[in-house]
Design a protein that fits this description.
Elements lengths: L5 E6 L8 H8 L3 E6 L2 H10 L3 H4 L4 H14 L3 H21 L2
Parallel strand pairs: 1-2
Length: 99
C-alpha cells in the first residue's frame, strides 16, 4: 500500500465532478501529485507530434510532470532535464552533420 501514490490529473478544471477536499475525504489518502489542467498545451504538443518537454519546457504542466517523474524514479529534475537535452541533441544531431 505504501507503493501506491494518488495523482490528481487536470486540477483546476472548471467543470469538475469532485473537489480536492472531497477526493481526500473519499480516498482517505494524501494526494501525492496534482497535475494542473493545461489542455491547450497538451493538445498542441500532441498535434505537433513533439514531446511535451520539448514543445513547452517551461509550462507548469511540464514542470509538474517532470517533478512527478523525478519523484517516482529517484532521479532529480535537473538530471531529467539533462537527459531530455541530450536526447534532443541526438534526435536532431544529424542535421548539423549533413553539409
Amino acid at each position: 500500500a505504501e507503493k501506491i501514490k494518488v495523482v490528481m490529473n487536470r486540477l483546476g478544471l472548471e467543470d469538475t465532478q469532485i473537489s480536492v477536499s472531497k477526493a481526500l475525504e473519499t480516498i482517505g489518502r494524501e494526494i501525492f501529485c496534482q497535475i494542473p489542467n493545461d489542455y491547450a498545451t497538451m493538445v498542441e504538443s500532441r498535434n505537433n507530434g513533439i514531446p511535451l518537454v520539448m514543445q513547452a519546457p517551461k509550462a507548469k504542466l511540464t514542470r509538474t510532470i517532470m517533478g512527478l517523474a523525478a519523484s517516482v524514479s529517484g532521479e532529480s529534475a535537473s538530471e531529467q532535464e539533462d537527459s531530455v537535452s541530450r536526447k534532443k541533441k541526438s534526435l536532431f544531431g544529424f542535421l548539423n552533420n549533413s553539409k
